[in-house]
Amino acid sequence: MKITSRGIVLPVAALYFLVPIGASIWFSVNEVDGVSFDAYTQGLGTEGLTASLMLSVRLGLATIACGLLLMVPTLVAVSLYLPRLRRIVEILCMMPLVVPPIALVAGVTTVLSWEQDLADTPLYMTFQVLRDENFPLVLVLVYTVMSLPFLYRSLDAGLRAVDLRTLVEAARSLGASRLQTLRQVIVPNLRTAVTGGAVLSLAMVLGEYTVASVLSYRPFSVWMVEIKDSEAQLSVAAAMLSLLITWGLLLLLTTLAGGRSRRRTNSGRENRKKTVS
Questions:
Q1: What are 30's strand-pairing partners?
Q2: Half-sphere exposure of 271 (CA within 13 A, CB side)
Q3: What is the pLDDT of residues 144-180, one digit of tens each?
Q4: Is the dihedral of CA 21, 24, 29, 31 positive or negative?
Q5: How many angstroms separate the CA atoms of 268 and 274, rounded?
Q6: Least packed by Cβ within 10 Å: which of 36, 121, 178, 213?
């Protein structure tokens, strides 16, 4: 029987991803006297879990919004009008992969230390807003920078897959403004790329520890590390919960995108049938 490369790569990839997950689940339910799901049924109601998880989710959604608002118009403008800057934009967006998070947060800490020097200026309140413990905007700004490589790769692949110039010229010839063209023509054609970049950004935020810990905030990743010594099984169960949330969001966004795409296709077919008849 002939074995194809796909028949080798897919099982190996499945083992690479599923074995650690299976081992983690087994660790979270394994007890001396047998199997117990207390880490999931009782432990997940522990104080601090819900608050830290919701903080991470809100930070993730804000990071996605800021990143998309920054990257989508920029990459569209570069693709249409400034193709020579593509390489420069790519290098700038890839920089967060080169700069270690600890170096990045060291610079942020230095800037935040200016707060006392600006106590008598209007900028003092700006620093207070950025450092609000209920919703630290400083983390959103840092996470937006850290998510640029994921958003860039995903959006750049999406833009290369469509004939952007033709779409824009067709929309403009029909009287659409630049904002309408971006919102109603370009973004729908980039839905898959936007979904992929958004999910990767959310996964990064849920798992990021260094920046939040150094800045003394307590999102989900920091909470998991804090309890791992006293409640190791609960920490692993919480990690599985964050993984489940990421997968669920990916499935939801993919389903919504696929449903909208099918509705547009069916609508187009119906319109063509009406025109022919």
A1: 35
A2: 6
A3: 999 999 999 999 988 888 888 888 888 888 888 888 8
A4: positive
A5: 10
A6: 121
